[in-house]
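REQUEST ID: PR-0412
SUBMITTED BY: lab tech R.K.
PRIORITY: routine
TASK: structure prediction, single protein chain
INPUT:
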Amino acid sequence: MSIEGRLFYNDPLHPGQRKQQGSIAAQPEYFHEWKESSLTVAPFFRLDIADSERSHVDIRELFVLWYPEVFELGVGIRKVFWGVTESQHLVDIINQTDLVELPDGEEKLGQLMINLSILRDWGTLDLYLLPYFRERTFPGLKGRLRSPLVVETNQTRYESGAKQHHLDVAGRYSRTLGDWDVGLSHFQGTGREPTLIPGTDASGNPVLIPFYEQIGQMGLDLQWVVEEWLWKLEMIHRIGQGDSFDAWTGGFEYTVSAIFRSKMDLGIIGEWLHDSRGEAATTPFEEDIMAGFRLAINDMASTELLFGVIQDLDRLSRIVSLEASRRLTDHWKIEIEGLIFTRQSPNELLFPQRDDDFLQVSLFYHF
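STATUS: complete
OUTPUT:
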């Protein structure tokens, strides 16, 4: 269970928004293992006092896995993560983003799937059938971190006539070759990132309506370890969402161990983010660089800190992020996250959120 306070420094910009947000959440987990199979159950619940759209229930995991020696077969709801970079995860497309949880897209909704993993000397082949689509969550009228117009999910539109029941398919081949980790992936189906089109609600008020296109996306992720250096790359080519485009994020993490003759490790991070759509990109990272560091105290409380700055190379806009965590007791843990949006110009995607700098403090109790 957790108690969370999301504290905003500035007053809201848009009508209807509350200044501060507080919530409680719970994610119980159950795991049982038999000789060659297992069951995982992980429901999720959040109640937010300010934004009713952020109050939601989800099944993060309800998954039965059968694993004889040469393959694994799973059925149910599951979260699957693909990706290696720090600033964004371009190739991570199986699960829908739970945007009301965190604006950085790191939190995901559970996805119904059938997953076959074939494990051989030549690598691992993962195949997915995804029979039901999950819509992205968006902040409501009273929520912060949104555009001036609320996203009206009751009017969601699809390119496919099957709507949420379109059968999506995906596959990923991965292999370790010496110091290299290589992943090649393909997804075909309903895009997880909607195009937001202008419309009106039942009262005639202007709103944004999500439209989900049918897309194809090829992905590549690479990691290369050279002593203290960890080099990373994620690259995609997507068709079906307007003109086809390419995007990539690449960079490094250099680890300095035992800094100042202590137990602490310091990772220095640098990444370049590129989207071939340029100004037409649907993300704020069309040409940016990220610099930051990761500090691991390596103490009994597992204290960690991650700090980063993403700088637009064409403008002065900048995003500053902070993540920190520390175990307080055997049962209690504290996590702190923060985002600052600086110098956002009127023609940038994050301009409507220019006054939504926030610090989020969460206390977790583990039974």
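NOTES: The chain has a mean pLDDT of 95.
REVIEWED BY: pending
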